[in-house]
Fold this sequence. Notes:
By secondary structure, the chain is of the alpha+beta class. 57% of the residues lie in helices and 7% in strands.
Amino acid sequence: MFLALFFVVSALALGWALAKSFTFLDSFLKKTAFAIFTGLFFSAWLALVLYWWVFNGLTQATILAAGISSLAAAALLQHFFKAKPRALRAETKTAALAICVIFIVAAALAAASAFRIEADGSLRATITVALDLPAHLALANSFALGQNHPPAYPFIPSTPLVYPFLADFLTAILVAGGLGLQAAFLLPSILLFLPLIAFTFFFAREFAGKDLAAAFAAILFFFNGGAGVLKLVADLLGGNLRALLNSDYTVIPQSGLYLMNSFRLWIFPQRGAVIGVTAALLVLWVLYRFISKKAGKNELLLAGVISGLLPLAHAHSFIAITIVSFYLILAQRRKEWAWFFIPMIALAIPQVLWIAQEITPGFAGIYVGWVEENAGKNLLEIALFWVKNFPIAIILAIPAYFLLDKNQKAFVTPFVLLFLAANLIRFQPQPWDNFKIILFPMMVFLLLASMALEKIWNYWKNGAKNYAGAALVIIVMFFSIAAGVQAAAWAGLPNSRYQVFSASEFQVADWIKLNTPPEAVFLTGDENNNLITALAGRRTLLGLTGVLETHGIGYAREAEAVARMYQNPACADFKAFGVNYAFVGEEELKLSPNAEFYDDNFRKLMRQSTRKIGSERLKALRRLKPARTRATGLWSSRTWEAKAGSGSPAFPPEPRLRCETASGCGGRRPNKAKAEAKR
């Protein structure tokens, strides 16, 4: 645990030293949010560079070196780039209240729904998190426990890891540094919530010039809800409280509602999005300051470096920033843009080339309307679809646009183009993932709407004869966020949580971690919550094919091999794919494994018992004989290790297969009597 805490503290020290170098951070809240984000972001990148090119793995030495490097960088910043000391102004009550309230809500909901270890030892999460969590755990544990270097997919280790993995690598640092899995997962996310919310507010205030407009924008962005509020109101008036406790009113496919509330859609499940959107908001804040002639070269340089480091953190945020910034560069041709453009391109190119190595024909393409429901619809119908899915307040963005000044209009235009692009172009194999692009236009459109709401509110406040303005603002805000507030609140309720892994599966994973080499490769089925990759940090020949499809990764060869190696196994396949262990659970039983082959050619490490524990997949607790293994394990079904010949240790550092006959994989020759009987 000491190493993990040392890394976090050194990261925050680096962030605070950076914060003291920029004069536009003129309040304690701004400096704190900036320090948390930049400290964790740059320190994670320092650790990644050391992991990749110096230590060839994520070890304790890697983490220690990263922490020391962060402290050294902080000391250098303090010595050479220290800004003149000046008093920090007190942040406004509106800013402090809006940021702190949303942060407390986000942190509480994350602790309740994003990753929760229950009293019975099981891991539960709200459904949107539960679907993605095994993949994120697999990536994090592959770095922390599985010696994943150079980075490859743990569930198809023959393929380089081209998915943006910085957020999971940050969790891996904390796991390898001694922090528990739950704390390592939640701590960076909750810490990053503060800068995410703060940068949303400060960017909005920079653009709108008003605290109240910025507060409205932050509330609308994080508690967004669409036309599902009408059903919510109907259920409220009808006394249907059961529906309120068991529904998400932002997603009603039969009514054409698909854009989920931000907390459930991306803040909790999309771990890279929290880093990516936070970084993008900071960059947008700086870019708007620059076109307004407020930002200097040092701020542009900072924005360029952060943008250049985005591809392996969150590719969609990088795409959004690239489109917006290039438009602004072309629209305002000033030589100072070089301070942004050059570091961005220089840092991004190696990452883009790494990601591009697995891009295949058809990875991107034309796809109109974001979701399948919009296929064949005309522009008016698609526009009505978005009116239903966005908060109703967004309609006010149209009149608000005509009240903007020249710089504001120039800044908004690329977001309109970005929104159109996200409705015409599929940026990845799964069209649904375009929502990660749509987030940015939505934020800006809601900001324009918030400026209109602020003017309406202040018209009443400044002495109008009636209260129609205030009433209108309250009504619009209610119908814009009520469904989102209900969806976010429901995510924190126990009945929204699904079991991802049982307590028994954690114990199986612990047994595997203790008794198999970190580089071991397992033969398993294709279940999403695969304990081998997610909890034990080991590699599988193939798994999580749904995830691979969304990343555009082909796996036909491995899929054929998995089926063949269970049903008609041969030594050549095990050698070719480097498989050391075969696992059989409920998912694998569907593949009709050839138990006789494994019993003859593999050492059996885990045995299935007839004793059952509830309806869990893990069914038996048995003390294994010392002659077979060095540990006691809780496990399900059967796990076989490839035999390495007589006299070899039970778990050799580098397990190898030895084929003595055409069909045998282990040191024992096939049973002749069985062979004769088969003839």
